[in-house]
């Protein structure tokens, strides 16, 4: 078998944030599979077949990719951001584990990308400049009680936090509850940032506090970053800078 | 003032993981500042001055960069990985906040990069494929008691965890204590990965369990990743794949 699967991160949207490694893999591929808007970012060319599929069919898509590779195709599975952060890599490995044993002989590589949280953090300044966590707020694949437990423990640990998939149209109440939990655990002045469509033409960054934040500030295109107790703002003429200092004094343990 | 500062992430080492945005910034720069081994990755050319400095002078280096930009220079501050993850962005903003007020008028951008944790995760499979946290284990800038608190709460939250700066020559006891805390909080079979020099010629990935891990498996060039309670291994002919499934059942809350 000369086929392979590369699970590639396209970054948050701007082509200047796609790594040369990913660009080279796309240039070599015979087939690209992925969610419709991500496949739309790949240029068509002779010899390349694009297989765009809808959301929530990650396992079908993964099986398709592995099967094509087993037939000798060179397959790139595209994710936005980084494929290992709430994206396609885990889905491909789930399909691999439950699939035919010959799939395990395939060459499978994960090509990292700029995940939304880091692009958003860069735009705001350096809010994740100290210890941090990342939580997927969607309860499609895990119970809400686990999300609540993680939110409370992360706040008690005084991590900066990044939230992916904060608010879906079908379940808007999750982010309402998230804000309630955070207000219960953190002070009202705690900084919270809403970064929508980072690096794309419709990018919008909004800096607020827990006291002033409303659920409508987030949608599924938004990454939400909550600072630690030490995250600060530098005011200036242009957009303010939000950052978390590297130093934590002995007496301040969040 | 036409000067600017761009705080750029060079990724973990492989040039194929440097974003085109960072490459373009380096091509436009008049001055590059950074820690010696990172500045050594920037090609010399006419019109570009390289300012390499030693470790632990991050604030001096940041002040130098801001001062040069105030004088009209185009300055790139280089970090390895992502500048917002335990790297130079927070240091530059600390220097900005305490510096002359005219520095606040400067154009300052953070250019994200592939941070070591995501490169290491990609090499192993997808161990951070679910909720996760990142902790800097160095106690140069924070008390050890805060590190211990975060380790315990992160284990109780059942995050996958990535550790930066796990073990310095001057303070090897920190990682010994880290392993003790993890053994106290997690089961002996918990997966732990040691990823050294990821994407460089001397890359070495080692997969172990908490029961079998020893402090010597880590040094300052290593990123350590601890799986969640649900992280699994797929055995195969080549290197095994380590990944965390996306789905968590209702009855299993870590």
Architecture overview:
- The structure is a homodimer of 254-residue chains.
- Chain A has 7 helices and 13 strands.
- Chain A has helices at 20-28, 36-39, 58-70, 88-98, 116-124, 144-156, 173-185, and strands at 4-9, 31-35, 49-53, 74-79, 107-111, 125-126, 132-136, 160-164, 191-196, 204-209, 222-226, 232-234, 241-243.
- In chain A, helix 3 (58-70) packs across helix 4 and helix 6 (144-156) runs parallel beside helix 7 (173-185).
- The longest helix of chain A has 13 residues, at 58-70.
- The relative contact order of chain A is 0.14.
- The model of chain A has no long low-confidence stretch (mean pLDDT 95).
- At the A-B interface, helix 1, helix 4, strand 5, helix 5 and strand 6 of A face helix 1, helix 4, strand 5, helix 5 and strand 6 of B.
Features:
homodimer; 254 residues; alpha/beta; five-stranded parallel beta sheet; five-stranded mixed beta sheet; 13 strands; 24% strand; elongated
Mean pLDDT of chain A: 95
Could you give a short account of the major beta sheet of chain A? 5 strands, parallel
User: What portion of the residues of chain A fall into strands of 2 or more residues?
Assistant: 15-25%
Strand order of the largest sheet of chain A: 3-2-4-1-5
Distance between the termini of chain A: 54 Å
Strand-pairing-aware structural class of chain A: alpha/beta
Rg of chain A, rounded, reads 20 Å
Q: Number of helical segments of chain A?
A: 7
Q: Oligomeric form of this entry?
A: homodimer
The chain pair forming the largest interface, with residue counts per chain, is:
A-B, 79 and 79 residues
Characterize the overall form of chain A.
Answer: elongated
* Number of beta strands of chain A: 13
């Amino acid at each position: 078998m000369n086929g392979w699967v590369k699970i590639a991160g396209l970054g948050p949207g701007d082509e200047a944030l796609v790594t040369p490694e990913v660009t080279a893999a796309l240039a070599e591929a015979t087939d690209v599979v992925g969610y419709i808007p991500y496949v739309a970012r790949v240029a068509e060319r002779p010899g390349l077949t694009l297989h765009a599929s809808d959301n929530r069919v990650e396992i079908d898509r993964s099986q398709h990719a592995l099967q094509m590779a087993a037939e000798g195709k060179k397959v790139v599975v595209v994710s936005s951001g980084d494929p290992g952060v709430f994206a396609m890599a885990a889905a491909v490995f789930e399909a691999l584990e439950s699939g035919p044993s010959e799939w395990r002989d395939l060459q499978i590589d994960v090509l990292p990308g700029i995940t939304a949280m880091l692009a958003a953090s860069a735009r705001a300044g350096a809010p994740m400049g100290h210890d941090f966590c990342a939580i997927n707020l969607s309860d499609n694949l895990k119970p809400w009680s686990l999300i609540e437990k993680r939110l409370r423990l992360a706040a008690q640990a005084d991590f900066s936090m990044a939230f992916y998939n904060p608010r879906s149209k079908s379940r808007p109440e999750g982010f309402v509850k998230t804000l309630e939990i955070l207000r219960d655990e953190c002070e009202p002045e705690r900084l919270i940032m809403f970064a929508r469509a980072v690096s794309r033409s419709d990018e919008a960054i909004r800096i607020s506090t827990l006291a002033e934040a409303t659920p409508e500030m987030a949608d599924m295109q938004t990454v939400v970053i909550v600072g630690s107790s030490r995250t600060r703002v530098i005011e200036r003429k242009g957009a303010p800078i939000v950052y978390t200092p590297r130093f934590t004094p002995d007496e301040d343990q969040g």
